[in-house]
Amino acid sequence: MKGKQYNPYENMLSVLTSAAQQLGLDPADYASLCYPERELKVSVPIRMDDGSIQVFEGFRVQHSSARGPCKGGIRYHQDVNMDEVKALAAWMTFKCAVVNIPYGGAKGGVQVDPHKLSREELIRLTRRYTTRIMPIIGPDKDIPAPDVNTNGEVMAWIMDTYSMFNGHCVPGVVTGKPVEIGGSVGRVEATGRGVTIITAECMKANNMNPASTTIAIQGFGNVGGTAAEIFHGNGQKVIAVSDYTGGLYCSDGLPIDEILTFTRSGKLMKDFEKEGIRHITNDELLTCDCDILIPCALENQITEDNADRIQAKIIVEAANGPTSVEADEILQKKNVIVCPDILSNAGGVVVSYFEWVQNIQSLTWDLEEVNAMLNKIMLKAFDEVYTVSEERSVPLRMAAYIVAIKRITTACKLRGGPISLA
Ligand code: GLU
What we know:
Elements: H1 8-22, H2 27-30, E1 38-47, E2 53-64, E3 70-77, H3 82-98, E4 105-111, H4 119-133, E5 142-146, H5 152-166, H6 187-205, E6 214-218, H7 222-233, E7 237-243, E8 246-249, H8 256-264, E9 278-280, H9 282-286, E10 292-295, E11 314-316, H10 325-333, E12 337-339, H11 341-344, H12 347-361, H13 367-392, H14 396-414
Parallel strand pairs: 3-4, 3-5, 6-7, 6-10, 10-11, 11-12
Antiparallel strand pairs: 1-2, 2-4, 7-8, 8-9
Helix pairs in contact: 1-3, 1-14, 3-14, 4-5, 6-7, 6-12, 6-13, 12-13, 13-14
The structure holds glutamic acid.
């Protein structure tokens, strides 16, 4: 991780405080949002394939349930820690409020490099972690979903473990499940699709012609890969992409289909070779000559170390928390438009919401319905955020937080306020 003593939770608090001040809120009105409602830290002991026992550290944080059950993904990563999970949980609260779906925010994680575990070890890790967080999750309480390094398969194991202990099938305990066991069509692509919807709106708002706009994408997993595929399918020019091993660049546009086939077969970008395509570093990708930059990897990628060198006119944050507070200030001075994570990447949780609704009603929607509803919700949210940004002359991030904080503090007030039980 780059940047000086980056702490994602402090980053979140700093943005929250500025937005609350913009709104003219009294600290007492948003004090409860500065602290998660519940933080759970668990040990996850598992038997490794060689017979030894290893104990991993796991977390589940519920930031707010003011507007509905807590909602948010589970990530498996070697750098996962409590402050990161706390920030990610808070971002989920704001994200669900921006797109106005009836959820609070949560996040979970296990500090592990899943690439170093066998499939059997990963199953045991997931099942044990599920039993550890079981007292606080459930379809009415807190609904996990995929995040970095987790997927539908992991969700299936969580659902199975939870269902076993409950004695009946409980599909609504997680979203992002495989379609065959209650997942929603369109969920896998939803985050990437949402990113492309928001990017298109940003281009429209800034009178940019999609056909001549160049796009650079950092991260080529589920989100970055899907977004690249949709842009490419629409005839747009994706000129740079990367994974954690490095990036590829071609000013005429990259052959996204070929690169996707390559990486989806488990290969790494550093090994992709084709005439006319140049290998670049991650830093070169972030600072390359492009119109739109879309970070789709981890937090703290755009920092005071590189913000000044960024050439993109628009940044669409598909990752959670990719821009530090310091970098945000630099970008603002450079008139770079930053479309914030809590709006740009909300497509995933929106279709998670559709999945949960389908599970509760024992119904299934078709892809057309899912995508039409996703489109409608994302466009409405963009419009609301954009309007606040214009009215108050504030950047889109500030506007998105203003929309979110208004909704959350109103919910708290209507419920009698945080001290109503005292
Ligand atoms: N992990 C995704 C996010 O950060 C999706 C969360 C969900 O679907 O609950 O938004």
